[in-house]
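Module 6 notes. Inverse folding takes a fixed backbone as the condition and produces residue identities as the prediction. Think of it as a translation problem where the source language is geometry and the target language is the twenty amino acids. Below is one complete input and output pair. Work through it position by position during the lab.
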């Protein structure tokens, strides 16, 4: 078995819980109340990625990393400003970590609105900048969004994540995903 499959099996076994209906509904509804819910993944002893754990890092530290990873790219100042705006909204939320604040913001909820609602009126470029700033926060692993958080913000995520998180196991995962034949 490949490392990717083994790792997937390990994560699946530890990260998923099945909640079943109570005994009284089991006999009448059989599977009607069953649902699959993701349990939070256990935190690793050493945070993954080249930047380490940023969940409690001050916004200024994250902005310095953003400045470093966007150097030489188009509009790095706009990206930094966008990340600053996203974090300024999150700083107003309750929580000790960026993840807790993100979840408290409502932007991660089922049916959530996009961070584009923070766009300055009449500034179309601002909307794109906010999405790019949010994508950087995700790619740096400061925030781990739910599926709803991803969908609400319509991000082109994998390639940028891959660039910012060089990791041999991640490369093996991408190779396996690329080799998987998907027909639409």
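Target side of the pair, the amino acids:
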């Amino acid at each position: 078995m490949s490392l990717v499959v083994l790792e997937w099996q390990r994560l699946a076994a530890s990260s998923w819980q099945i909640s079943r209906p109570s005994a009284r509904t089991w006999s009448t509804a059989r599977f009607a109340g069953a649902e699959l819910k993701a349990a939070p993944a256990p935190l690793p002893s050493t945070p993954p990625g080249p930047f380490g754990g940023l969940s409690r890092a001050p916004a200024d530290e994250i902005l310095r990393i953003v400045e470093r990873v966007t150097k030489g790219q188009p509009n790095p100042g706009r990206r930094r400003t966008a990340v600053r705006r996203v974090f300024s909204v999150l700083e107003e939320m309750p929580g000790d970590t960026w993840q807790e604040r993100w979840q408290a913001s409502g932007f991660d909820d089922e049916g959530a609105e996009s961070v584009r609602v923070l766009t300055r009126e009449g500034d179309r470029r601002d909307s794109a900048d906010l999405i790019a700033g949010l994508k950087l926060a995700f790619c740096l692993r400061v925030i781990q969004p739910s599926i709803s958080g991803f969908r609400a913000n319509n991000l082109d995520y994998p390639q940028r994540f891959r660039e910012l998180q060089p990791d041999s196991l991640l490369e093996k995962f991408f190779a396996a995903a690329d080799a998987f034949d998907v027909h639409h």
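Reference fact for the lab report: The radius of gyration is 19 Å.
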